[in-house]
Write a structure and sequence with these properties.
single chain, 331 residues, alpha/beta, Rossmann fold, four-stranded antiparallel sheet, 29% helix, binds iron/sulfur cluster
């Protein structure tokens, strides 16, 4: 069996936090990520989706080694990701790059575009100055930037062009995996599709894998080979995007999908309004963490945490009633 490019095994990240006013407060545990497991083969895309605060971005930081796991591990090409800052971590990190939400925040406004794209090659001591410049120019062309952008500054370019610079900085090291954390949500709607199409084209040409994080299920569907839905630090449903969006099995996925706007009156669907607010992450409900907002909850849901089980169609679902709920056709 081929070793997957990326494996997360029971990945967990807890934080100790103080709750309540001093001196009467107590120390509590915030379960940002709680036992997340997935595999990502080379050249494929896993979309991670969920509301803000569900643990998507912490999962990205764990995969990049920017925060250490409390429990579990990340394996890259079969090798456990070493502690950040070690020589082996730096070597592996060359294969894993990142693209974050805010391109201007990720770039140095005082440094010309070409120098910023060349910088990762200098850090990793790759090539001569002339070779680095040639590599940077070729990478700029691959992401749709022109040669005359080389000596310009990020603030002189549009939001879409700035995100292309960030992408070129990641690509210049020829990574095997790019972690994209909300890579298009800061861009105009008209530019979002261009950047998504570029990511898809680059994957087809270069065989890169993406861990694509977004709250936008429509965008996730366009880029992903598999989608994992997260709620309060856990994956609650995972499967192939078309079937997951057409027949969501978990009540939380059903609610997320029902909130996707649709222009067509023929496909218009009823919006599922979830009860109440999301629970406090430092005081999670017992049993299924979704039971306080779930319209299908039964007594068992309040006491027993549902495992992520493989269904007959290969999808993984964490719901006691996944076999018995009649999935709603919503897309
Ligand atoms: Fe709802 Fe129970 Fe399923 Fe949780 S386990 S999603 S509360 S039906």
């Amino acid at each position: 069996m081929t070793t997957p490019l990326l494996q997360a095994a029971e990945l967990t990240r807890h934080y100790s936090v103080r709750s309540g006013a001093w001196p009467f407060g107590r120390t509590a545990t915030l379960r940002a990520v709680d036992g997340v497991s997935f595999t990502l083969p080379a050249g494929r895309t896993l979309g991670l989706v969920g509301e803000s605060g569900c643990g998507k971005s912490t999962t990205a930081k764990l995969v990049l080694g920017l925060v250490p796991p409390t429990r579990g591990e990340v394996r890259v090409m079969g090798e456990t990701l070493p502690p950040a800052g070690t020589a082996r971590w730096r070597a592996l990190r060359r294969s894993i790059q990142m693209v974050f939400q805010d391109p201007l925040g990720a770039l140095d406004r005082r440094v010309p575009v070409g120098d910023q794209i060349t910088e990762p090659l200098i850090i990793h001591r790759i090539g001569t100055p002339a070779q680095r410049r040639d590599k940077a120019v070729a990478t700029m062309a691959a992401v749709g930037l022109k040669l005359d952008h080389f000596d310009r500054y990020p603030h002189e370019l549009s939001g879409g062009q700035r995100q292309r610079i960030v992408l070129a900085r990641a690509l210049v090291l020829e990574p095997k995996l790019i972690v994209c954390d909300e890579p298009i949500s800061a861009l105009d709607v008209s530019i979002q599709a261009q950047v998504v199409n570029l990511l898809v084209d680059l994957q087809a040409q270069l065989g890169i894998a993406y861990l694509f994080i977004s709250h936008d299920l429509r965008m996730i569907r366009q880029v992903s080979h598999e989608v994992a839905v997260m709620y309060l630090g856990r994956i609650v449903e995972q499967g192939e995007p078309d079937s997951l969006l057409a027949q969501p099995a978990h009540p939380y996925t059903q609610a997320l999908i029902s909130a996707i706007p649709t222009a067509s009156t023929r496909t218009r669907r009823g919006r599922i309004i979830l009860k109440g607010d999301p629970p406090n992450p430092i005081d999670l409900p017992s049993g299924c963490a979704f039971h306080t907002r779930c319209a299908f909850a039964v007594a068992r849901c309040r006491t027993e945490t549902p495992a992520l089980r493989v269904m007959a169609d290969g999808r993984r679902v964490a719901c006691h009633l996944a076999d018995t709920n009649s999935p709603r056709a919503v897309a």
